[in-house]
Amino acid sequence: MPIRPATDADVPELQSIYAHHVLHGTGTFEEVPPSVEEMAERFARVRERGWPWLVSSDASGVLGYAYATQFRDRSAYRFTLEDSVYVREDQRGQGVGKALVARLLEMSETAGFRQMMAVIGDTENAGSIGLHASLGFQHAGTLRAAGLKFGRWLDVVYMQRALGAGGSTMPEGDPAAI
């Protein structure tokens, strides 16, 4: 499955895929799809930080995408990423998401990150939960009734996977910076 870094030219398709998930799914708690311009700004912020944003594509266009961002803004989280993955509706269940997240994990580990978190909207999101479990993510907790979308309360499932040495050793570099 061809996977490559996303480019500015991909942004309209990224927005289209995400808009479908916003309007029809519970994997994201956004309720109004971002515009192409807002999606371009989000894409730029991820790329400016040097974090990976990947796409899988073929002759029909972008099949899906995945990216990683720092789990939280505080500096202590600088070795922990959160992944996001969205697949075009007609490609779901074809292995696109798994291939994208697998590559994201490889790139993140090579870059020196130590943990990857998955923050999954809806305990009924069996596809995303299963995808992450198949790649070694472990259940780390559930926030009950954390969001309200489509007229129902939704849980948030946290899953976690160590990268490289995980928390067993200190990262290389200046200990004062750690």
**Strand proportion:** 25-35%
Residue ranges: pLDDT <50 for 5 or more in a row?
none
Annotation field: number of helices:
4
Query: How much is the average pLDDT?
Result: 95
Overall spatial form: globular
Strand order of the largest sheet: 1-2-3-4-5-7-6
Q: Count the beta strands.
A: 7
Q: What order do the helices and strands follow?
A: EHHEEEHEHEE
Quick gist of this model?
The chain has 178 residues and is α+β, with helices and mostly antiparallel strands. It is built from 4 helices and 7 strands, in the order E-H-H-E-E-E-H-E-H-E-E. The chain has helices at residues 11-24, 36-48, 96-110, 126-134, and strands spanning 3-5, 53-58, 61-70, 80-87, 115-121, 138-149, 152-162.
If you had to describe this structure to a student in words, what would you say it looks like?
- The model has no long low-confidence stretch (mean pLDDT 95).
- The protein is 29% helix and 32% strand.
- Helix 1 (11-24) crosses helix 2 (36-48).
- 31% of the residues are buried.
- Strand 2 (53-58) and strand 3 form a beta hairpin.
- The chain has 4 helices and 7 strands.
- The protein is of the alpha+beta class and 178 residues long.
- The chain is globular, with a radius of gyration of 16 Å.
- The chain has a 7-stranded mixed sheet, sandwiched between helices.
- The protein has helices at 11-24, 36-48, 96-110, 126-134, and strands at 3-5, 53-58, 61-70, 80-87, 115-121, 138-149, 152-162.
